[in-house]
Amino acid sequence: MASDLEVIGWREGKLWFLDQRLLPAEERIVETEEPEEVCRALKSLAIRGAPLIGIAAAYGMALGLRSGMWEEEGLGSRLERLATLFLSTRPTAVNLFKAVDRVRRSVFAHRGSGENAAEAALREARMIHEEEQAMCRGIADHGANLLSPGSVVLTHCNSGALATGGIGTALGVIRRAWERGTLRHVYMNETRPLLQGARLTAWELGKLGIPATLIVDSASAFLMQGGRVHAVIVGADRIAANGDTANKIGTYALALAAHHHGIPFYVAAPTSTIDLAARAGKDIPIEVRSEEELVMLGSKRVAPEGTAAYNPAFDVTPGSLITAIVTERGVVRPPYTASLAATEERVQA
Ligand code: MRU
Q1: Residue 44 falls within a domain, yes or no?
Q2: Do residues 70 and 190 share a domain?
Q3: Distance 265 CA to ligand 1 centre (A)
Q4: Ligand 1 centroid to 43 CA: how many Å?
């Protein structure tokens, strides 16, 4: 069994993380004590993927609460400023909002307990990290049961260790199915414009020794039409109460194509990605990123100077196109309004 890839952690009062912008060419670890640097890493996608965004923000809050950093302005004000800083980095993944909220509550709850603010925040951040790792393992076990022997699956973006700090969501399922001998092959979309599939998923699957083939995003429907894909499995950034799911741009088109060809379309996500406060997809904020990411390919301009570009980073797949949502609690099926609410109740219990 391949060893787990570690992409983020806490060492001697500092946060360390793998700078994903440089992969696959360079595996550079960055160490920091500055919450602002963690925010820059989140905005620039040096750290990315819904669960990992939450984990990093939680550790970043702990960095910002070290003694000497808040006494003058007061704990309440410092916490609010830190929360605002982190919440302004990426709007779509709900894990960020949940993690920041958990750290804030935990710090308030431990006031006067003898534990200092940074210790309380760090303890909560470590707990979030460990929970995400455990949830990935649960998702992998449940999700692998859905794949029959000889399966060829298609995935989009990167939902592995690099996105989760654990073994991954959709990629965790793929990994478990490979370990069980039921997975034959993976097709991975390159994931324009930032190439999370080509740069990150290809790198992770290569390290795991899982046979995989890279395709351009627009080749997916062609492969499905030719009967070369048995299931599509993707991660999620936020799942609304009715099952509508925000994930990397291009996911909706994949779901439409899978539906047309009668191919199961699975979303694999921890319950930390479910947002029952969002009743439907229209309630999910969609991040729109810089035009630069489209008109440039690395440092090379690919569109003429002055070309207008529109760069939504996520789209919403209607729950009606999703065959099942795989969580650490089990496989959730339509009607999602009832099944997701029941899953959340079990999490709270
Ligand atoms: O913009 P990114 O790279 O953070 O987007 C990541 C994705 O869309 C993933 O598919 C999603 O976070 C789920 S992975 C656990």
Answers
A1: yes
A2: no
A3: 17
A4: 13
Which amino acid is present at 317?
Answer: T
Is the CB of residue 237 below 6 angstroms from any atom belonging to ligand 1? yes
- Provide the phi-psi class of 255: left if phi over 0, else alpha when psi is between -120 and 50, else beta: alpha
Q: Is residue 3 part of a domain?
A: no
Asked if 237 is an active-site residue, the reply is yes
Residues 31 and 175 in one domain: no
User: Per-residue DSSP letters for 264-312?
Assistant: -EEEE--GGGEETTS-SGGGS---B--THHHHEETTEE-S-TT-----B
The domain in which residue 74 lies consists of 8-136
Number of domains in the chain: 2
Q: Kindly give the number of the ligand 1 atom that is closest to the alpha carbon of 248.
A: 8
Q: What is the pLDDT of residues 138-195, one digit of tens each?
A: 999 999 999 999 999 999 999 999 999 999 999 999 999 999 999 999 999 999 999 9
Whether residue 314 lies inside any domain: the answer is yes
Distance 341 CA to ligand 1 centre (A): 23
C-beta 50 within 6 A of ligand 1 = yes
Here the CATH number for the domain that contains residue 156 is: 3.40.50.10470
What pLDDT digit, counting tens, does each position of 91-140 carry?
999 999 999 999 999 999 988 666 789 999 999 999 999 999 999 999 99
Which of 112, 136, 160 finishes a domain? 136
Residues 6+ apart with CB under 8 A from 125: 10, 55, 58, 59, 61, 62, 99, 103
**Which mutation among 44, 248, 252 tests ligand 1's pocket best, with the greatest number of atoms within 8 A of CB?**
248
Q: Which atom of ligand 1 is nearest to the CA of 269?
A: 15
CATH number, domain with residue 34: 1.20.120.420
